[in-house]
Known about the structure:
alpha/beta, 8-stranded mixed beta sheet, 4-stranded antiparallel beta sheet, 22% strand
Amino acid sequence: MSLLSVQDLAIRFSTGDGTVHAVNNVSFDIAPGEKVALVGESGSGKSQIALSIMGLLAKNAQVSGRILHEGRDLLTLSQDALNKVRAKKIAMIFQDPMSALNPYMRVGRQLTEIVELHEGLGRADARKRAIEAMEAVQIPDAKNRIDAYPHEFSGGMRQRIVIAMALICKPGLILADEPTTALDVTVQAQIMRLLDEIQSELNTAVLLITHDLGVVAGFCDRSMVLYGGRMMETAPTKDLFAAPSHPYTRGLLRAVPNINDAAGELRAIPGSPPNQLRPLTHCPFAARCVDAVEQCRSTLPELTGEATKRACLRPVEALS
Ligand SMILES: Nc1ncnc2c1ncn2[C@@H]1O[C@H](COP(=O)(O)OP(=O)(O)OP(=O)(O)O)[C@@H](O)[C@H]1O
Ligand SMILES: [Mg+2]
């Protein structure tokens, strides 16, 4: 049974230059408690997928497809109904902790507000929950720090508070969009360890968006690779690293000999990203693909397979 089922999701933006085809008929499922990575180069559509699940797309977006959560299509819910899902059932952690926090409000109030609104707790109970939430993300002296303002915390501590806000209602699914990118390397590792601990304790499902293959290897059960708003490959993480089956994934991983050496940023592949102002009529990676044949420039491959799914016309054995 899947917790979230994204089906045929397409996201377009109307702009002065024309229609931007940001996400092109993407489908995937997340099971309860599953940790899934979403990787792909800048502009591939990762954040827009997460935002569409939260109902937070920009005004100029047009979205189609279905996002089923507990049997309901989130794309058809009213703002009111969606507000109930957000925070309580699905929470999002953004890259920049300062943008997720209100600088003029004490952190404790920002935490209590959520449980007062979503769980109807009174002031005193809400405060207790807020302290527990801060302790769960290992903020020292939470009882006193609860009355501090965001700027009184370090970047790493602020991101812990953002995580506490995401977790305070114990949602079944967390969407974490580059949760550690704004932090330095040691703090990144602490935050990922913390997320991992909390995840296994609460059995929360996580969709993790990241550029860092080391984080993917260390944290995620399954990985999904996006290119030009299209799903290229999805596989159990260990299989993806051991035997990437899509030329794009191979390009990304070429610098990474094995899963244990998977530290660092995604590698750049020669060529430029696809022009998203044109609707997709063929494989978006064809222009940069070392294995492309004529048919790749005229046909749009579907994502097919079992444990490993790939969208490529070329058989794995034929790849260079
Ligand atoms: N409001 C908007 N209007 C027009 N285009 C948009 C809008 N929002 C996003 N886009 C475009 O949608 C595409 C996908 O953007 P998205 O933010 O999902 O990328 P991403 O994969 O998260 O990249 P990054 O790794 O840089 O965060 C990009 O080409 C982006 O420019
Ligand atoms: Mg993004």
